[in-house]
Amino acid sequence: MPDRWQTYALEFKGGLITNVSPLQHGINAPGSARILRNYEPSIEGGYRSVQGYDKYASDVVPAYGTPLVHGNGQSGTSLIIGNIFKLPIVGDVVSLDGGAVAGAAQTGTTLNVDGLDVAPSANDTFTIAGDTTVYTVSAATALVGTASTLTITPAIVTAPADNAVLSFRYTIATGGVSFSSVNKRATLTLNQTMVVNPSDQDAVSFPTAAGLILGVSSFESFVVAARNSDIFKSSGSGWTKINTPNYGSVLVNGAAQTGTSLVVDGITGTPQIGDTFTIAGVDLIYTLTATPTVTSGSATFAINPALNSSPADNAAITMLTTDRSGMAKHRFAQFNYNSTDHLVGVDSVNVPFVYDGNTFTALDGIPTDGIGASHVANFKNQLFFGKGSTLLFTAPFTFDDFSAASGGGVINVGNEISGLIIFREQLIIFSERTIFRLVGNTIGDFQLQPITLDTGCVETDTIQEIGGDVIYLGPDGIRSLSATDRVGDFSLAVVSKVIQNNITNFVNRNTSFSSVVIRPKSQYRLLGYNANFSSDSAQGIIASQTSEAMQFAELRGFKAYVASSNLNADIETIVFANDSGYVYQMESGNSLDGQDIYSTFATPHIPINDPRIRKTIYRLVLYTDPQGSFFSEINLLFDFDEAGIIQPTPFVFDNTAASNAPTFYGIGIFGTSTYGGTLQRIFESQTLGSGYVVSLQFRSNSTNPPHSLDSATLEYGTYGRR
């Protein structure tokens, strides 16, 4: 006969542990986890389901910058575009504005339009200004002048404004791309006939083009994103290109100019080979084929193509893009030397750039040691650029003065730099095998001192500071670098030993890494990227700094090639991006961009007391802290879930099911639902099952708000030893 019932209390704490045997795990850390996926160890106790992410902006970061139609008189299926710095891909969708809605109050599947040059064909697609829906033409009447009546799907729900602009979409045909990387021009063959013949310098967009975003940075009240050969910013709506050079008010110097050279004046900088521009009153987009010599603000531009017509004297030159072709993964730093915040970026290929929110400045005068820099940091009011084993730095309080006379200089650290970070008034310099620190204030007293010559950081974008420690990915796992009580001394420790197998698997399965900190949670997130993995399969590691120790969990569904977190005006913005073309904002929303978040937590196999005495579990009581709707499926798994063991049927805890449950915003029915109720936090269920050890497993797959699993109690009886 069983003995009387007893209660076993279980506090959920300790995070994911996978480096011990199942029974040891259950005996020594019963509140920890053998599975903890999309739950995070909370600084408030327990395990909290992770918050999701949404698109930071609803538009993709433009794949090809801001290309323009190159020349008038184009029609049919051939289109020449200029100001494009990357080879378009067959199958890309090209969008051109043209035509307009003819008449207000139109809804349904018929739409009157005007301003067309050719009647649309069946299966042509378009959008309407103010409406993101892509409509497909199923039939179109012959043109009457420039007007046609379209039969479309889906039906228009909200009537567009009269004269709302149409944007017709075309796909690039197989073999339909001819591209000049020198002249920044492409000739496209389209699968569809252009409905409206474009004009010279009309905007061309590629609204659906996927592909890697090479850098993101949260800066001030907006986000900067780098893609292909251009850099953009957004405050959450649309993307504006920022790599537009500022060389002053450049004007044509002299009338009657023809051919492939152009004399200009009013220049305050030095234009670069590959820069593109337009000329007021002259068709076509022009590209600099050589870097000009500027003398007293005047220069002669070597250009392609030849001038379409002779510009007027003093005709304005509009610079379009500074060439950043070939750029790779970006890294950023911020500084403020003149009461204006600046962002500095490097991309391992081009010269670094500086952006103050309005003006983009390419550091064209940087010494050779800085061209193609891969790392950047702001230390002691000087910018430090890392390239190979070289550390190049500016003079104090400048971003473009590298002269030794002013205080700039170069340091060779002896090994290829893999990362830079500022830590307690020191510049920490990582390589894969060493860690150095740079101390001092200026070139006069800078000293390079070793911290360790035995180990370093193997993945550049994993270095972060959290809670007074530097965290990074070393050759043997996640490591911390922290100061000790001794002046100038550091502690180096592997903090991820408890999940060593998970770390090894994570590193082996991914090809690139990024990281962010979530400051209010004292949390470090290490994010993996593999182009062959779907977003659902993307892996990550959570490390939460609690009062007891670093606690870990796993992430799924956060596919990040680049990531950034920044605190501005006490608001933390955390963004990441991959190969979808979108930038996503973490800690925003309750879904993975509209998809359910699948979270699972399983305790160790707990013996409760004696692992060789069978226990019968009669009741489970779960203590939670939901932020709204809560639904979880619970399994009791006995005896290590081995084959042949009959397990109890799963059951569900749900705080929306009871007749007196409160109603949540967006779900309730006016006049029927009751508002202002109290959330159910304690759940209880009768259970039936017995074994020597037991594991509790909780699974949630929903878009519900986050919830915390705090603790549980098991009511059980034991049998005598047999």
Quick rundown:
This protein is mostly beta strands.
Name of the CATH first level of the domain at 6-28 and 598-718: Mainly Beta
**CATH topology label of the domain at 6-28 and 598-718:** Jelly Rolls
Mean pLDDT: 94
Number of strands: 55
* Alpha-carbon Rg, integer: 31 Å
Shape: flat
Our measurement of the CA-to-CA distance between the termini, rounded to an integer number of angstroms, reads 12 Å
Structural class: mainly beta
What percentage of the residues does DSSP assign to strands (E)?
35-45%
Query: Percent of residues in helical segments?
Result: under 10%
Note poorly predicted spans.
Answer: none
Largest sheet: 6 strands, antiparallel
What is the CATH architecture term of the domain at 6-28 and 598-718?
Sandwich
Number of helices: 2
Describe it for me?
- The protein is an all-beta fold.
- Among the domains are: 144 residues, Sandwich (Jelly Rolls); 138 residues, Elongation Factor Tu (Ef-tu), domain 3, CATH 2.40.30; 71 residues, Beta Barrel (Elongation Factor Tu (Ef-tu), domain 3), CATH 2.40.30.290; 127 residues, Methylamine Dehydrogenase, Chain H.
- Helix content is 2%, strand content 45%.
- It contains 2 helices and 55 strands.
- The strands form 11 sheets. Strands 1, 3, 4, 50, 53 and 55 form a 6-stranded antiparallel beta sheet that branches. It has a 6-stranded antiparallel barrel with strand order 8-9-12-11-10-13.
- Strand 47 and strand 48 form a beta hairpin.
- The longest helix has 10 residues.
- The chain is flat and about 105 Å long.
